[in-house]
TrEMBL record:
<dbReference type="InterPro" id="IPR000182">
    <property type="entry name" value="GNAT_dom"/>
</dbReference>
<dbReference type="Pfam" id="PF00583">
    <property type="entry name" value="Acetyltransf_1"/>
</dbReference>
<protein>
    <recommendedName>
        <fullName>N-acetyltransferase domain-containing protein</fullName>
    </recommendedName>
</protein>
<dbReference type="InterPro" id="IPR016181">
    <property type="entry name" value="Acyl_CoA_acyltransferase"/>
</dbReference>
<dbReference type="GO" id="GO:0016747">
    <property type="term" value="F:acyltransferase activity, transferring groups other than amino-acyl groups"/>
</dbReference>
<keyword id="KW-0012">Acyltransferase</keyword>
<feature type="domain" description="N-acetyltransferase">
    <location>
        <begin position="3"/>
        <end position="166"/>
    </location>
</feature>
<keyword id="KW-0808">Transferase</keyword>
<dbReference type="InterPro" id="IPR051556">
    <property type="entry name" value="N-term/lysine_N-AcTrnsfr"/>
</dbReference>
Length: 166
């Protein structure tokens, strides 16, 4: 298995990631939120235009995860105040899960955070996303808060905030 995790530096790759994001979201969240909310959230947070805005205006970085040169996942991070790194996105295509790639992705996030001088990585995860929560707990993240965030159009994000001390 040859896995690479590299920062996204061109539009073509970001467009590929947007396509993969839509595919993964429509597969993994279908039992958790409605199709309408999936479309809405993909448009707001994971579309090519949304990710371009995040990179230009909000200091986000995206990383493409490839196995044998094939795009199979992506990571999105954003450094914040108080030496915290926000792990905004950690997504892997279904057929690539359970193979150790997620742990490589999280190691990459922790390495990036240390390079930025961060002392904490935090994320939000849907309270019903049992597998992701189990993975994060196994790695050492802890639930520090519960939140319900209104994201418009009658939709909410019903999340735990989880934190990992570096
Ligand atoms: C979240 C995600 C990236 C994790 O990737 P994955 O391939 O499923 O994770 P793995 O099965 O490799 O598990 C990672 C680690 O957690 C452990 N783990 C997995 N399930 C576990 C469980 N139920 N209990 C305890 N540990 C568990 C694994 O053993 C592994 O540890 P190891 O590398 O030390 O062996 C992937 O499932 C995904 O993309 N899901 C859909 C999108 C999503 O929900 N993203 C998160 C949004 S916040």
């Amino acid at each position: 298995m040859s896995v690479t995790i590299r920062i996204v530096s061109n539009d073509t790759e970001l467009k590929e990631i947007a396509e993969l994001a839509s595919e993964i979201w429509h597969e993994c969240f279908v039992d958790i939120i409605s199709e309408g909310q999936i479309d809405y959230m993909v448009g707001m947070f994971q579309s090519y235009n949304a990710m371009t805005r995040q990179i230009i205006n909000e200091d986000y970085s995206y990383y493409a995860v490839r196995e044998n040169d094939e795009l199979c996942g992506y990571i999105g991070v954003k450094p914040e105040k108080d030496k915290r790194l926000f792990l905004s996105k950690l997504y892997l295509r279904k057929d690539k899960r359970g193979k150790g790639i997620a742990s490589l992705m999280l190691k990459n996030v922790f390495d990036t955070a240390r390079e930025y001088g961060n002392t904490e990585v935090y994320l939000t995860v849907n309270k019903h996303n049992d597998h992701a929560i189990a993975v994060y707990k196994k790695i050492g993240f802890k639930v520090i808060e519960e939140t319900v965030k209104d994201i418009g159009c009658g939709y909410v994000m019903d999340d735990y905030i989880m934190s990992f001390a570096l």
